[in-house]
Amino acid sequence: MRCHRVLLIVPGIVWGLLLHCAPVSLAQERPTILAGHGTLSGSILPLWVGAEAKLFERHGLQVKPIYLPRAAGRPALLSDDIQIYFSAGPPLVQMRLGGADVVVTSCVVHKLTSKIMVTPAIQKVADLRGKVLAVANPGSASDFAAKLFLARQGMKPGQDISLIYSGSTSAAFAALVNGRVQAIFATSPNDLQAAQAGFKPLLELGDLNIPYAGNCSAAMRPYMTKQPARMRSFVAGITEAIAYIRRRPSEAKGILQKYTRVSDPSILQHAYDSDTRYMEPVPRPTSEGTKTILENLGVSGRTAEQFVTEFNNDEFIKQITDEGLLKQIYPSGVPALR
User: Fold this and answer.
1) φ, ψ for residue 133 (rounded to 5)?
2) What is the CATH number of the domain that holds 72?
């Protein structure tokens, strides 16, 4: 029980009135985590669903998603303005390589995804030579995907193909439409918009099965060490949200509509299908995905092994597994990817 006091302010006088004692709601007593994210796409759906469906609250935690565009999430995490950064793996790896003691506790996607959308004249990957490719920002997921893909195709940015930074995925799409570029790396719904505008998919990167760390939740190690119960609750909420998304597509698409402000049913369905296709039922951080990112940044061998050990933390996934959460949300067994 807690008594509530209301202050009535009258010119020159402050009156304190003690109101009746009333029980404080459990919601008010729950600790709060601010979780930043840098995009408004279906890749953030587990975070949004966890908050909107009150799945984090089932585990004693309130989570408030905060949109922080243009890489603002990284300094916000460093300064403790947010406690969780929900992000693709490359920016997080770069943060740690730069000296930040950041730790990843879950990753929803374990392979590199997105489509390469091109002008109709481009028929095969070799046709990209001499063309202009747009990605969002330096160090972004699309930047990483482009450089990794080109390297594996034996192409060098600036030599075999021009790589430009548009500032955002929507700006990259606009550049494709107005003819400034001939190719973009697109995720939903930009790939559908590009197709409707007369462009075509050249390749679905998910079909290449390149290990990757995508849609990861990261925290600073001091916070994780100080607040292990909150971190456990956050990981549990994300894991339960994935099961909810698979089990209740209508509700999930409603939440997706709220945050992306996309109302077209066909676009929402496409986004749902695209973003759940590679969504892991159990979002463990993986060493293989982290090593792919490190390899692209020129880090390998024992240095990479040590990095992975310090960067990936699966203790909370193990904890909720031991507690039986996976059996609760997947009573018929953990499903395979769609």
Assistant:
1) -115, 130
2) 3.40.190.10
pTM of the model: 0.85
Contacts of 74 by beta carbon, 8 Å cutoff, 6+ apart: 85, 91, 95
**In degrees, to the nearest 5, what angle opens at C-alpha 209 toward C-alphas 191 and 198?**
20
129 plus 198 within the same structural domain:
yes
Q: What is the pLDDT of residues 187-238, one digit of tens each?
A: 887 888 899 999 999 999 988 899 999 999 999 999 999 999 999 999 999 9
How is residue 312 annotated by DSSP? B
State the DSSP H helix or E strand holding residue 304, giving kind and residue range, or none if neither: helix 301-311
Asked, for residue 14, whether it belongs to a domain, the answer is no
Three-state secondary-structure class, residue 72: coil
Are 106 and 120 within one domain?
A: no
Residue 26 maps to a domain = no
Instruction: Please choose, from the candidates 228, 204, 188, 184, the residue with its C-alpha nearest in 3D space to the C-alpha of residue 318.
Output: 228
276 shares a domain with 180: no
SS3 220: strand
Helices (H), 153-264: 169-177, 190-196, 221-226, 228-247, 249-260
Domain count for the chain: 2
